[in-house]
Amino acid sequence: MSLQGKVAVVTGASSGIGASIARTLASSGCSVVIAARRLDPLESLASQFPTVTPCQCDVTDLSSFRNLISTCESTYGFPDILINCAGVMYFTLMKNCKVEEWIKTVDVNCKGVLHGFACVVEKFIERGSGHIINISSDASKRMFPSLAVYCASKTFIDVLAEGTRRELVGTGVKITNIQPGDVKGTELIMGNTDGEAAEKMGVEIGKPVGEGFEREQLLDVEDVAGAVMYALEAPKHVAVNEVLIEPRDQE
Ligand SMILES: NC(=O)C1=CN([C@@H]2O[C@H](COP(=O)(O)OP(=O)(O)OC[C@H]3O[C@@H](n4cnc5c(N)ncnc54)[C@H](OP(=O)(O)O)[C@@H]3O)[C@@H](O)[C@H]2O)C=CC1
Ligand SMILES: CC(=O)[C@H](N)C(=O)O
């Protein structure tokens, strides 16, 4: 299915995977509203494409998410596609009780996605079409030490999506979860604080994801954007419900 003329909203588009998805959609003929809390990187990305508009949004705040969808509606029309990509990941050992980081993980990764559903599902059903894509993680499929809360948050997304998908069978609405393994060069672990947990995972706090890994142990952001395109471009009668995409040499 061609994406020419479609309207998309991408959260978490100020860096990493979300920025790559936004670039790919814009290059494929979509009008895109890109969202995150940091406006500067959004504006810089938007300046490279005639049909990309930045919108500051905190996905943990429902009214902020509603404002994002209204901005899209008044600029390009109600979205055909919502990409829930905003997310945080903290390596934390449960014994170190980083409660604030646990709560933030739940707020962004779980509540943020729920807010996205709240803003589009009803209208998608009414229109008989619409596609929600969630950037989940392979951490929803297998547990990693030091990531209990993160794994739980991504499992929440998978279960939410599958439950909603079953409820919506026959409505024309599609929901896809993309479950990437380690992706190179994103800012996901920059703000981590539990040094003991990070050390256990063999990562250095303050460095982008993948420092010191072999090439075949990492995906590029474009690989994840490619998986998103695969799901979006599938024929109308095909639902790509999940895509587990990992680097060749990830254990
Ligand atoms: N890198 C990896 O190895 C993998 C990443 N993922 C998932 O991919 C997604 C993107 O992560 P990635 O690109 O790696 O990391 P980045 O840290 O580069 O991107 C995270 C994005 O989320 C945004 N964000 C964080 N909190 C909020 C918030 N409250 N409201 C709105 N936006 C927010 C950030 O923008 P800002 O700070 O400006 O708000 C940023 O744009 C996440 O959901 C992550 O879990 C999944 C599997 C593997
Ligand atoms: C658990 C992981 O490290 C996964 N690659 C992710 O970043 O979600």
Describe the structure in your own words:
By secondary structure, this protein is an alpha/beta fold. It has one domain: Rossmann fold. It is 41% helix and 15% strand. The protein is built from seven helices and seven strands. A seven-stranded parallel sheet has the order 3-2-1-4-5-6-7, with helices on both faces. Strand 4 (81-84), helix 4 (99-127) and strand 5 (130-135) form a beta-alpha-beta unit. Helix 3 runs parallel beside helix 4 (99-127). The longest helix is centred in the middle third of the chain and has 29 residues, at 99-127. It is globular. The protein starts with 6 loop residues before the first strand and ends in a 6-residue tail after the last strand. The model has no long low-confidence stretch (mean pLDDT 96). The protein binds NADPH dihydro-nicotinamide-adenine-dinucleotide phosphate and 2-amino-3-ketobutyric acid. NADPH dihydro-nicotinamide-adenine-dinucleotide phosphate (NDP) is lined by residues 11-18, 36-38, 57-60, 85-89, 108, 135, 137, 180, 182-183, 186-188, 209. One of its GO terms (biological process) is fatty acid elongation. Belongs to the short-chain dehydrogenases/reductases (SDR) family. It catalyses: 3-hydroxypropanoate + NADP(+) = 3-oxopropanoate + NADPH + H(+); L-allo-threonine + NADP(+) = aminoacetone + CO2 + NADPH. Keywords: Oxidoreductase. This is NADP-dependent 3-hydroxy acid dehydrogenase YdfG.
